[in-house]
Amino acid sequence: MNLIYGIHDKPNFGKTLLFALQQVLAILAATIAVPSIVGNGMSQSAALFGAGIGTIIYLLFTKFKSPVFLGSSFAFLGSMFAAFAGAVSVEAGYAGLIIGAGFAALVYVIIAIVIKLAGTRWINYLMPPVVIGPTVAIIGLSLAGNAVGDSLRGAFDADAGAYVMTPSVWVAFICALVTFFVVIICSVYGKKMMKLIPFIIGIAAGYIVATIFTLIGNATGNEALQIINFSLFENMQWIPDFTFLTAAHGITQVTGRYIATIAVAYVPVAFVVFAEHLADHKNLSSIIGVDLINDPGLHRTLFGDGIGSFAGAIFGGCPNTTYGESIGCVAITGNASVITIFTTAIICLVISFFGPFVTFLATIPSCVMGGVCITLYGFIAVSGLKMLQPVDLNQNRNLFTASTIFICGIGGMVLKIGDVTLTEVACALILGIIVNLVLGGTKAAKTAKTAEPSVEVKAAEEAAEKPAE
């Protein structure tokens, strides 16, 4: 795509702050949701601080060449629950969070070393466009339910097989639609700055509408109109409760058996997240027009993700991962400036100590973020489909490979094997790779690559085709 700002471009200070704030808004909901879901007193502010630290470490390892933000990973939710469930106290559970993140980081480091020694050609053969394209699409499609559910306040009725449109759901849906249409109108028809900050404008519009509904609801006592929970300001947290401070009191309660339990909970998930890491970077590469697998190199992105994830857990308890919301933001705005991502990380570090601002961000209704996420997740899905463009789907080999990934991913093939949960993305990718190998897709890719004419031959053919002057 045509980028407005490339990787190394540096917008002026004011614009950079605006673009960074937009990234914060894009990644905020998911980043602070993980500690809220896990509970046990985990701090949203600390998770935000950990995400900022993790992102800066990632940028350092990747030599500031990969514009993506690292936030709290949902893939490790089960692992984090296991850490608390197997601990003798909450303090020991916090120690388990750090130990588990260390195991996950170790997996990343080992894979990075292997890739550094063996190179990345095997990855391209193992996961050609016919595999990686549908997988990237599945990442976006697997999140579609979250975007729709947030937009409709999660009012799905399993018996009716539909969302029941009660007054409160209608109000939430209106806020989501306002946000959604403002984002796409600014992105498509906006000029200059408006085109670059569609999410800020869209979220602001949705928040204003939600505030109006809430004020009317408070004045009339109508709960259906009370979209925003302003009571969050009553118990806001000013200083983050960093994980390592609580873990220090529980480290002496950690036993060898508990460490083994943590390893079993975290290590397999790390391999699953590696697959998503690869898909995210393939997707980002196609968006920015730079092959990140080769420059700065997959080993560097893995080192950055692994070490950054561990650092994030030390401060916030949550292992980090590359965020599709951040990638979608890059795709929609055409702003791939790494300085923007770096500034986003700095903002996260600063605002984590400013309770009112963190609380204000937390009051943004899920329906408003749902309207934003419809566009973000949709762009991720479409990016994957674009990767399929050069693939010949008239060949049954390619058709079966792609269809396997789509059906398993969209069908929600989530497998729980013991304490390990394989997400639909991981299952779809693994089966897609197997189908492609069984049908000789890797061999075909090698043959096609070998048969491809050299640059010199192509130049000669093009010269021969030109009419004589």
Write down the overall mean pLDDT.
85
Which stretches are low in confidence, meaning pLDDT under 50 for 5 or more residues running? 448-469
Structural class call reads mainly alpha
Per DSSP, what share of the residues sits in E-state strands of 2 or more residues?
A: under 5%
Largest sheet: 2 strands, antiparallel
Give the spatial strand order of the biggest sheet.
1-4
How does the overall form come out from the CA principal axes?
Answer: globular
Number of helices: 21
End-to-end Cα distance: 34 Å
How many whole angstroms does the radius of gyration measure? 23 Å
What sequence of helices (H) and strands (E) makes up the elements? HHEHHHHHEEHHHHHHEHHHHHEEHHH
Q: How many beta strands in the DSSP annotation?
A: 6
Percent helix, as a range, is 55-70%
Description:
This protein is mainly alpha-helical and 469 residues long. Helices cover 70% and strands 3% of the residues. Strands 1-4 form a two-stranded antiparallel ribbon. A two-stranded antiparallel ribbon has the order 2-3. Strand 5 and strand 6 form a beta hairpin. Helix 6 packs parallel to helix 18 and helix 18 runs antiparallel to helix 19.
